[in-house]
Amino acid sequence: RKATMTVDKQYQIAPVDDRIYGSFIEHLGRAVYGGIYEPGHPTADERGFRQDVMELVRKLDVPIVRYPGGNFVSGYDWEDGVGPVDRRPRKLDLAWKSVETNEVGTNEFMEWCRAVGTEAMMAVNLGTRGIDAARHLVEYCNHPEGTYWSDLRVSHGYKEPHNIKTWCLGNEMDGPWQIGHKTAEEYGRIACEAAKVMKWVDPDIELVACGSSNSQMPTFPEWEATVLDHTYEYVDYLSLHTYYGNRSGDTANYLAKSLDMDAFIRSVIATCDYVKAKKRSKKTIHLSFDEWNVWYHSNQQDQAIEPWSVAPPLLEDRYTFEDALLVGCMLTTLLKHADRVKIACLAQLVNVIAPIMTENGGPAWRQTIFYPYMHASLYGRGTALRPVVNSPVYDSEDFTDVPYLESAAVYDEEREELTIFAVNRDLEGSLLLECDARSFDAYGLTEHIVLEHDDVKAVNTAKEEPVKPHNRGVSEVNDGILTAHLPKLSWNVIRLK
Ligand code: AHR
Q: Please, are residues 430 and 485 in contact by the beta-carbon 8 Å criterion?
């Protein structure tokens, strides 16, 4: 099969906000304890942070990390996680039926962020708490000094404010599983009032209101419209979450699920703009896709985990090669909406539905999905282009006209680089891509990276990494025309300079 594409440096979608390559660390399972933090580990630094994990996080160049939840945040008292560690309470975490020791809290997480070179995206509890806890946390984190909460931070050893810029107003408040689940009216009101005072404490912060937990929620998209009705003037972003799985073992259908993500994004944009019109507002609400990934492998094994232990191995999905392909398709989908999606978080970062896994006391290693995420984060910065694409299509169980070629193009003007990300969804054969890139006429091929494997169910382990990229992709550029061979079922990164 053959697909064609035209990219032109003049046909631009928008600058890519680096934060679309964000991720997420929740107090859940072994994400924190045994993940980023394990004091007894041979690589632990003096603060207890695993340096082997930090090294892998740095390789991903993660620009922002959402924290501390997730469902966890809706029952979290942030005050439990600051001050002398030996006086911090052990509490039940009802979201994940675990015990939270509070050894790691806001300040430790901020130290970790600084150590790995990322920013925090802090969530406040709008489940069991409210306006006061939220404004106090902003004051604790961001106010310089001279008030009760800022001086408390100073007394805890953090003279400089953390200056956290991006804040989430709760988490998945539309979900009955959420501690303190609310109706759209109830959430809209509390989010509006919390947002107002949080911005009074620090006018430089940006706020994310909760959209629906996924597009299948019965209240979607009415939830979005009602929440924005209340919060429009106070918030900057609306959140989206989605997870996919291949329970029926139908790879062709599974790889098409990024089309569902695309439709979800379009519907949320439409809803935001509907409220904009209704309010005669000049302001545009942007999207924060702050939870997205594959999540289904661990569902069953999690049922067998006994409640009330510290850091149980929850949500430890082992990702297959086909999962990496879908993650690649989801990344290109985000890029295609660079004009509206300004933040996105691969959920999550370590051990919990994560690209990075650890063994307690043992090594840290890369799952299959590590690679497309890393490639997009490293080479997908600059300006998202709007290519004209012509691809043969197929029909699957849930989708029609699925293009075999899933792609996105990013132009990095500063580095003078063009990168084409391309997934060949074809299970049967390779796809020939002919790309007219004549507006980049002096550019030649830097490399063609490929992630491919014969077995869609292949996984990496702590010992072996059968699913890893090579850069022996077959491509050539002649007079501005790129010809690339995309092997059957493959993730491709074609870099021109
Ligand atoms: O990322 C795992 C969980 O998925 C989060 O805690 C929750 O927000 C979502 O349902």
A: yes
Place of tokens 């074809």: 426
Q: How far apart are CA 326 and CA 406, in angstroms?
A: 10
Say whether 233 is catalytic.
no
- Strand, helix or coil at 122? strand
Of 13, 107, 68, whose CA–CA distance to 348 is shortest?
Answer: 68
Q: Write out pLDDT tens, residues 383-427.
A: 999 999 999 999 999 999 999 999 999 999 999 999 999 999 999
Q: 291 CB under 6 A from ligand 1? A: yes
Sheet (strand 445-452) strand order: 12-15, 383-385, 405-412, 417-424, 490-496, 445-452
Residue 172 a catalytic site member: yes
In whole angstroms, give the CA distance from residue 13 to residue 6: 14
Among 71, 181, 217, 290, say which to mutate for ligand 1: greatest number of ligand atoms within 8 Å of CB. Answer: 71
Alpha carbons 191 and 193: distance in angstroms, whole number: 6
Cα 142 to Cα 150: distance, rounded to the nearest angstrom? 8
Q: CA-CA distance, 274 to 278, in Å (whole number)?
A: 6
Pairing mode of beta strands 431-436, 2-6: parallel
User: What ipTM was reported for this prediction?
Assistant: 0.99
119 CA from centroid of ligand 1 (Å): 20
**How many Å apart are CA 207 and CA 10, to the nearest integer?**
32
Is residue 159 exposed (0-12), middle (13-18) or buried (19+ Cβ within 10 Å)?
Answer: exposed
- What letter represents residue 355's amino acid? P
Instruction: Read off the pLDDT of residues 253-304 as tens digits, 9 standing for 90 and up.
Output: 999 999 999 999 999 999 999 999 999 999 999 999 999 999 999 999 999 9
The total of other beta-carbon atoms located within 10 Å of residue 97's CB is 14
Q: Is 26 in the pocket of ligand 1 (CB under 6 A)?
A: yes
382, 17 Cβ separation under 8 angstroms = no
Q: How far apart are CA 133 and CA 140, in angstroms?
A: 10
Residues paired with residue 44 on neighbouring β-strands, in sequence order = 50
Alpha-carbon 208 to chain mean position: 14
Measured from the Cβ of residue 209, the count of other Cβ atoms closer than 10 Å reads: 29
CB-based contact 380:14 (threshold 8 Å): no
106 has a pLDDT exceeding 90: yes
Collapsing DSSP to helix, strand or coil, 262 comes out as helix
What residues have CB less than 8 Å from 259, skipping those under 6 apart?
399, 402
Omega before 68 within 30 of 0, i.e. cis? yes
3-class state of residue 353 by DSSP? coil
